[in-house]
């Protein structure tokens, strides 16, 4: 055992170093609830990777099904069927059971005590197990209390990992939950709402950490590829249904809620069919009855409809849900894990929220606008939310990808802190204490971001608030891996293109202008430049060398044919913001596919290469204009500095360098050192010319700080365009 500090408290860590540690999971598993099954699947995969020798067992509601599915030893939480407090049993049967029942229950305690012999760790893995909404027995608080208490008596460690809590309404339920949790060696909750719920029943949960749902840790290998239909087919909406969970959802549930829910979804489905969408019905539990209910309401509402356009494949396993959701374009789901699975598969999603866990999850992903309360179904609002989601789908997908990455990293972190790192993780330099620090920093930043985004723009402009933003940005940069992105879109920074037009506009009639575009991604930047310059000066001979390190993007760039899949490839809507005239001027359209016009393709040489390569000057030669946008920021500062110096060598004396998307300290240092002349024209406009990067400051490493004229170096710092190799003295020489 070793001790690690968690949220200010030392907790003893369970060790997996023992030869074959015995690990027992407990929960509502083997039951057909796909959310629960995916949780067990995820934690088993993670722990098997960390400790393949472990002897895993599962105490659950349906041992036979769980054994068949996971191939581990399983046993029932309780082997008793009827209890004195089960109101379904007739009173005549319940009275004599008082005595018999007591004996039988003692037998259950004895059975559990024997089963736990030699157990090292008892784990309650995720799920919304901490509730009394489904009764105290079964997988409710009483039996969990029993197993936890006995595990402690057997000197086993007890861990509640990313569990969901609430509602807990009965007095006995509250006592049992408080007592059980206080016996645990470690507790974490899957959202702040769960932690608050426990605080609300008098358990001080606020010192325990919050980590995302364990299903975010499902290994990538389990996730199917995208099976959404091709572009020429109808788009498919995954429509997730659920029987109304009554007390689990509301303190005073009303039967009318379920009827209103089905009616609203049926109206919505009718609208979808009318809009030429197909529908896939999604479930998450063994509850096909809800499909029948839904179909009857739909039939009643619509009369005749094409039943083939509402697909309802049987869903009985995690794989089924994954496969069904992979075959959709967009999801409107009710079950929590349908929503979560949609996020994992990067599908834009609306959540019909019935419990605080749903709204918490959506808010973690910055998708609160796409929550729809099951108790206030409103078809018009749902249609409005859906239309907005479709319109913003590229941005939403980007946010989801980012949110899922962060959730995955946090889940991995928790496993690392609790059980040690996997081989994957141990190859990186971070120690467990660094991992913990990292987690704390990320959670701190996440909270601060939410507050920041609520601040009015004027408040963000205040000096101390800016300084705080700068400090937060530095913290973000220190704590995240700078992953390479391909993101790009047409006419991305219009003021920069305008300045290019003005610079090139000074050339003589018929002149040859040499331009290098480095890090060109799928080529839309190159065509944007050519469109801007050739529209203005068709007489010039523009010779463009375009280079990127990735062969895949270069081959797309060369073809110059852009379908909506190109947006998916770079995770940004590439046609965003184009006017109708621009769309017509730049492309020949075949359906949704835009083909770059022949006059814009001329004169470009495409190549795969590294902008840091010192032999670049030999292969490309000197240029009048070098464009190096939005890729240096991916590099650690020393590499970015070297690369920037390397690219600057390409610029003809007196030529221009355009460089955005770079660490401002790096750019300023190099510019000052090499004596570049910052161009004041359109400086502020270019700085704000890519709203995406501006709005992401300070919470993303690529975020761009606001222009601040109070800085002494502001003229250089906020210039993205420089004249290179003129007579200006480099700073070092000038100061000598
Ligand atoms: C975010 S995209 C930017 C695309 C485009 N310049 C823009 O601003 O819209 C970054 C591109 O830089 C490329 N890249 C990254 N490092 C590079 C390097 N060392 N040499 C050349 N290209 C690189 C990536 O492959 C990617 O296509």
Number of domains: 4
CATH topology of the largest domain: Rossmann fold
Radius of gyration: 30 Å
How many separate helices? Answer: 30
Strand neighbour order, sheet with most strands: 20-16-15-21-22-24-23
Bound compounds, please? Answer: S-adenosylmethionine
Roughly how many Å apart are the termini? 61 Å
Task: Give the beta-strand count.
Answer: 24
Mind telling me the CATH class of the largest domain? Answer: Alpha Beta
* Largest sheet, strands/sense/barrel: 7 strands, mixed
Instruction: Classify the beta-strand content into a percent band.
Output: 15-25%
Mean pLDDT: 88
Structure explained in plain terms:
By secondary structure, the protein is an alpha/beta fold. The chain has 4 domains: 210 residues, Rossmann fold (3-Layer(aba) Sandwich); 173 residues, Rossmann fold, CATH 3.40.50; 81 residues; 242 residues, Rossmann fold (3-Layer(aba) Sandwich). The chain has a 7-stranded mixed beta sheet, with helices on both faces. A 6-stranded parallel beta sheet has the order 5-4-3-6-7-8, with helices on both faces. It has a 6-stranded parallel beta sheet with strand order 11-10-9-12-13-14, sandwiched between helices. Helix 4 runs parallel beside helix 5 and helix 18 crosses helix 19. The N terminus and C terminus are likely disordered. The protein binds S-adenosylmethionine. The site of S-adenosylmethionine has 22 residues, from strand 16.
């Amino acid at each position: 055992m070793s001790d690690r500090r968690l949220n200010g408290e030392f907790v003893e860590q369970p060790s997996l170093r023992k030869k074959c540690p015995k690990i027992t999971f407990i929960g509502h598993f083997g039951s057909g609830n796909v959310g629960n099954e995916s949780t067990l699947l995820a934690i088993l995969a993670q722990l098997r990777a960390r400790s393949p020798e472990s002897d895993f067992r599962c105490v659950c509601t349906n041992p036979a099904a769980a054994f068949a599915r996971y191939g581990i030893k399983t046993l029932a939480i309780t082997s008793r069927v009827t209890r004195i407090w089960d109101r379904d049993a007739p009173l005549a049967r319940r009275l004599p059971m008082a005595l018999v029942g007591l004996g039988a229950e003692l037998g259950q305690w004895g059975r559990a005590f024997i089963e736990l012999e030699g157990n090292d760790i008892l784990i309650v893995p995720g799920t919304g197990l901490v509730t009394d909404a489904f009764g105290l027995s079964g997988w409710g608080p009483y039996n969990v209390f029993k197993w936890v208490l006995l595990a402690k008596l057997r000197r086993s460690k007890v861990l509640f990992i990313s569990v969901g809590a609430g509602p807990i309404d009965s007095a006995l339920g509250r006592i049992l939950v408080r007592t059980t949790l206080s016996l645990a060696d470690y507790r974490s909750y899957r959202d702040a709402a769960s932690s608050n719920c426990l605080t609300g029943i008098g358990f001080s949960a606020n010192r325990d950490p919050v980590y995302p749902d364990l299903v975010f840790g499902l290994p990538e290998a389990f996730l199917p590829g995208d099976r959404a239909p091709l572009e020429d087919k109808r788009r498919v909406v995954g429509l997730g249904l659920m029987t109304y969970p009554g007390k689990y959802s509301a303190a005073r549930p009303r039967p009318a809620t379920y009827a209103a829910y089905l009616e609203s979804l049926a109206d919505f489905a009718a609208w979808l069919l009318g809009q030429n969408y197909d529908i896939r019905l999604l479930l998450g539990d063994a509850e096909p009855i809800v499909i029948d209910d839904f179909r009857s309401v739909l039939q009643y509402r619509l009369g005749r409809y094409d039943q083939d356009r509402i697909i309802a494949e049987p869903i009985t396993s995690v794989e089924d849900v994954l496969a069904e959701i992979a075959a959709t374009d967009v999801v409107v789901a009710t079950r929590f894990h349908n929503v979560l699975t949609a996020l994992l598969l990067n599908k834009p999603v609306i959540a019909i929220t019935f419990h605080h866990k749903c709204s918490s999850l959506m808010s973690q992903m910055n998708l609160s606008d796409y929550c729809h309360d099951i108790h206030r179904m409103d078809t018009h609002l749902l249609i409005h939310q859906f239309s907005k989601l479709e319109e913003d789908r590229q941005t939403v997908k980007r946010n989801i990808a980012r949110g899922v990455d962060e959730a995955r990293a946090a889940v991995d972190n928790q496993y690392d802190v609790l059980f040690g790192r996997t081989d994957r993780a141990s190859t990186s330099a971070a120690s467990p204490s660094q991992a913990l620090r990292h987690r704390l920093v990320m959670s701190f930043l996440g909270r601060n971001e939410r507050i920041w985004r609520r601040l009015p723009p004027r408040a963000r402009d205040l000096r101390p608030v800016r300084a705080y933003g700068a400090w937060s940005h530095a913290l973000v940069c220190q704590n995240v891996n700078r992953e390479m992105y391909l993101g790009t879109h047409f006419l991305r920074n219009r003021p920069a293109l305008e300045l290019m037009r003005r610079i090139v506009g000074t050339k003589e009639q018929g002149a040859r202008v040499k331009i290098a575009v480095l890090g060109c991604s799928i080529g839309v930047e190159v065509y944007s430049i050519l469109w801007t310059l050739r529209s203005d000066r068709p007489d010039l001979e523009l010779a463009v060398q375009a280079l990127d390190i990735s062969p895949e993007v270069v081959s797309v760039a060369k073809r110059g044919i852009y379908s909506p899949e190109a947006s998916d490839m770079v995770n940004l809507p590439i046609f965003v913001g184009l006017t109708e005239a621009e769309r017509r001027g730049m492309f020949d359209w075949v359906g949704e596919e835009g083909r770059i016009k022949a006059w814009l393709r001329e004169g470009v040489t495409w190549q795969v290469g590294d902008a840091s390569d010192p032999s670049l000057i030999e292969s490309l030669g000197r240029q009048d204009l070098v464009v190096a946008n939005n890729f240096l920021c991916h590099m650690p500062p020393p590499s970015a500095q070297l690369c920037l110096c390397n690219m600057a060598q390409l610029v003809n004396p007196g030529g221009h360098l355009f460089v955005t998307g770079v660490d401002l300290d790096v750019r300023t240092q190099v510019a000052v050192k090499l004596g570049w002349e910052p161009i004041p024209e359109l400086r502020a406009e270019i700085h704000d010319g890519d709203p995406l990067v501006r709005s992401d400051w300070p919470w993303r490493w690529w975020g761009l700080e606001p222009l601040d004229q109070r800085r002494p170096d502001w003229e250089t710092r906020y210039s993205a365009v420089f004249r290179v190799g003129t007579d200006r003295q480099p700073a070092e020489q000038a100061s000598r």
